[in-house]
């Protein structure tokens, strides 16, 4: 079958199971877009900015477990993808990005809209390709999908010059297993290392399991719960590990780290054994490394060998897929209890409950972001999928929304990307069309993605948008308050009227300013068929606590003040 390079791209995507693609056309990718009319099986979503195409592909990948695909033209189209690719790289999300490029004869001449996108994206992709022969195109696409979805997932970019898209060749899609020199992901762990890990677990008196994103990526949630129950160990999660264990489960301690609960961080710092699975000991998790895990031996399980001993030395390092390694480990772990250890954790929990602002009394007109998060959880019964940006609203969602369902939270972790939540929610909606999806976003990050409201309407996506509107770049303002003597430079925000803005796009816009308005407004949004935007006008100068300041030990937290918040809000 003689096909053009453009047709080969679409034929190859079909064979990889692609059903939806997010993109924006331009001159260098136009032959491929022209051929799209022959492939109605693939739904193309026209975004309003290429960065959001990458975020949509990312949201689709995280919600579905499949590879998300995005497309852009050369030059500015390709460079606009980079923030989304970096986000996916930091969070191990499987994306394939296809970009157009100037013709091969023009490469290196600074032709119109030429950018060396493979050079630009080398540090922020798992791999990338420049295809200069049409005969190599189908094989390259197959290899790109294989790399993106296997081992530690990540983004892969394929750059295709315009003349390669136009050229013709015999199309035969490779069906044999992909074999790449130097790339052999091994799912199973070393049996010797697994036996050593089991021995440490069986001997521990104060164990803690640290569950990361790798649990969710590998689908190891059941094995994680079984391990926690068998060895009677508490489970702390990273931000991206949230929903790896139901937060209502008695073994779950919730999120750890910079804004994790005090009892979670204290348990980690007092543990005699830490079992870290599918996480990379990010600085937001560890605090000051010099004072991290002062009493604990460390078992570290990760599919990426580069993560073992990178930040925290491991007494036992196991390279392998989380699900496969846990299946090896479980038969070797003894069933036992740790009553004294749990009694200590419960003492720490009592203090946290006394400080929790949800349990304090506030006048009705005092609307705090935690009120919004807890009421969103209560009214929906925790049945929804949530996407967030980065910042205060992200931390409050992690603290006050109880995540009991799998793949329930999609957020930007490692890169901390403002503008991520709205396009990610759209990608997630395409992945799970029957799911109720809420985009929880700050008023700052939302303004980076506003143009995609048009895409939501054009695609008829039923997405609910909750803007946590405090009139600031909230987390930056918090740091300015605590570390820069309240010098609020470049953080107060001038905003549009978000309700009128929603209405301009044909979206139902609502506003909430009081606690008593929360439940009926959320219920009204849920009942409405179609997208809804809610402007939650929350108090401005409210901080996320606990907080481990940069450079401090994980147990050296600024605690949630007792009654101070209420005093400040009513003065």
Could you walk me through the main structural features you see in this protein, from its secondary elements to its overall organization?
- α7 (137-149) links the parallel β6 and β7 (155-161).
- The protein is built from 24 helices and 20 strands.
- The protein is globular.
- The strands form 4 sheets. It has a 6-stranded parallel β-sheet with strand order 3-2-4-5-7-6, sandwiched between helices. It has a 6-stranded parallel β-sheet with strand order 11-10-9-12-13-14, with helices on both faces.
- α1 (5-15) packs parallel to α7 (137-149), α12 runs antiparallel to α15 (339-355) and α16 (369-380) crosses α17 (392-400).
- It has 571 residues and is of the alpha/beta class.
- The chain is 37% helix and 17% strand.
- The N and C termini lie far apart (76 Å).
Q: What is this structure, in a nutshell?
A:
This protein has 571 residues and is of the alpha/beta class. The chain contains 24 helices and 20 strands.
